[in-house]
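User: Run a structure prediction on this.
Assistant: Running it now.
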Amino acid sequence: MTDAAASSAPSLARLTVLAGPTAVGKGTVVTELRRRHPDLFVSISATTRRPRPGEVDGVHYYFVSDEDFDSLVATDQMLEWALVHGAHRYGTPRGPVQDELDVGRPALLEIDVAGARQVRRAMPESRLVFLAPPSWEELVRRLAGRGTEDSEEQKRRLATARTELDAVGEFDHVVINDTVASATAELERLMGLGS
């Protein structure tokens, strides 16, 4: 391929954003994808909260001060961010994602629907993938089965999930998480990773 042809050819490296409702299995699918592709870049969030025991800066999160977070937002260095539970901010730094794309490697971001909307505005060329449950009943079963939320928290999360499911039309692709293996294989296919 000539240099002119190479520069006009679309890059295969693209940011893929995986979003979906609570308890749909985003983290589980991303864990399986990373098991299959250990070198895949999965973005690490920045947060203003303090590290929990065992968390390592730059591995689990980038732990930053409120002032540093303000600076990242003010200088357009965040692809998306949000205040979570009224206490701490979390967001996706643009730099590490852009560095991967610039050298021709795909990048993956696992976030919520509101964050995916922000990324679409910040990087319109990104690929938005909605991870959906096979049915509403299955989503309810998965949430209850986690045993990590009390009944009030489950109700709140399910109300949010209904709203998030209504956003499916805003996404480029929908992957049904009926099994982790099939959902991961479909995400691999969309990202051009092969198996």
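The chain has one domain: 3-191.
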